[in-house]
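I had to read the description of the data format several times before I understood it. Each protein is reduced to its one-letter sequence and a matching series of backbone shape codes. The format is easy to grasp once an entry is in front of the reader. For illustration, here is how one protein appears when written out as sequence plus structure tokens:
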Amino acid sequence: MSDIIQLLPDHVANQIAAGEVVQRPASVVKELLENAIDAGATNIKLLLKDAGKTLIQVIDNGKGMSVTDARMCFERHATSKIQKAEDLFNLCTKGFRGEALASIAAIAHVELKTKEKNQELGTCLKIEGSKVISQDFISTSEGTSLSVKNLFYNIPARRNFLKSDTVETRHIIDEFQRVALAHPNIAFLLHHNNNEVYHLKESNLRQRIVAVFGTKMNEKLVPINEVTDIVTIEGFVAKPEFSKRKRGEQFFFVNDRFIKSSYLNHAVVSAFDGLLENGAHPSYFLYLKVPTSSIDINIHPTKTEIKFDNEKALYAMLRATIKHSLGQYNVAPVLDFNRDANLDTPYHFKSNSKSTSAPKITVDPDFNPFKEEQQKEIHFPFKREKQTQSWESLYTSTAISDDEKQEELFNNQQEVKTQKTFQIQRKYVLSSIKSGVVLIHQSLAHQRILYEQFLESITVKEANSQQLLFPVKISFSSAEIEMIYTIKTELENAGFSFDEFTKDSVTIKGIPVSVTESKITIILEELLNDINLEVPDASFSHFDVMAKSFARTLSIKTGTLLMEKEQDALVNDLFSCKEPSISPFGKATFKTLTLHEIDNLFNS
């Protein structure tokens, strides 16, 4: 029997490793930014084309590499960060495995330009699919410039799995924000298709958060600061009134490394106990400093999950620290047994000889509500100078006779007999049909109706737009502005009309006729969330995503009272749809119950 186990060729092994390290363009961005930080850069530029599919370039002013290091950095498991296994438990850098550049070079066209300080010439290295094409000496600035072009060019199946440019850009921006928030002392620049998205100057933590998420964020932040023997906690949480329906601005950093931890997130949420509406999520930017020996960051390929030696202690400290800050800044109610100065006697009463007197109320000692003569005419226990006319005269014109009551009752009964629909618990609409009854979920049904209307107006008809008397200016973060600008054409097809785009705001002068002015901000925020979360079953472009997002946001909600005409309109509009039986998100909009099924309920 012949041997069947053999070593994989290097280029195949690199492609397999790339599958773990490089999932999408954002993965490359993360690795290159972290390398630049490890190189001691104080100024980092990120340039993108076509959401990173065509070009990802990171330029830094770090210490650069020698000729030998420039060649070695693309070899698998080649690293300057660790020398022995014990070093894994004392890491102070971002990357350490030596897999990133080798994996990236296996699936893209890579060009590296680098020069060390005090060197006259630098090195230029070109690699395609792990194969070195050329290596030359060049004149370049101190630091490193690394360009990654045509990502997944030799793995077309993997490239086809990439999402739209808007979605991939959103993922890149997420990674960029995480790195930028972890290092406010470093200046960052982000350009996408020659458009400046971020220009972040060296700053402190609060300024960096505001620069990333917009000026309105400043008023939302509550400072957090606590120093203990096992952990130092600093950062900010957002005030409860600014909580969001979606998990968005939630950032944990441990030793300047972004991490995800459902356990620590629960500690934060529990600190807001009683302050948040049901279903709301708090925003936070929390930075933890712990001894490197007390954590293990080598348990996940992307290093976004780490293991703590003392999770329970961290949980308790984090929760207590946030609760203390919320109380300290009068965000949460606290018990205070000290005297309230607001209840002190005003100073002018202290200085003068004035004295306050209790108000005088004259009471009728002879008042008895049970006396027969007093029941005929209403008396008040307090004497008044003027008496109003008899209360009975106020109701003379509205008194209803017994005959009229019987007639009203008869009319109500007739209305019930002729009414075709009934609303149940302000959630369902019941309608009778020949074979029995149909129970309609009012919110899901309205989603289907609006979805088809929006989809038709966006893709088939020319959308009707209503011009606003006064244009509305809405503030967003730079990343959100970039996303809105990317889908500007689709939004205009839907009926929106834009006046001006700036780095942190957008001015809207026209909206779809089915949208009210008060809903503009909510609709756009929900749309951005849906694009970011990649709404399931989006079958084509952003039109489908947009129609689904608008439908869900604008549909009538559970708890809304519907008049009979509104119930009838809902039923008629639903069964005029192309797909009336399911909502845009795949849920049933109605259920039928036949007479036979109803009979069985009583015969069982």
Summary: The longest strand covers residues 465-475.
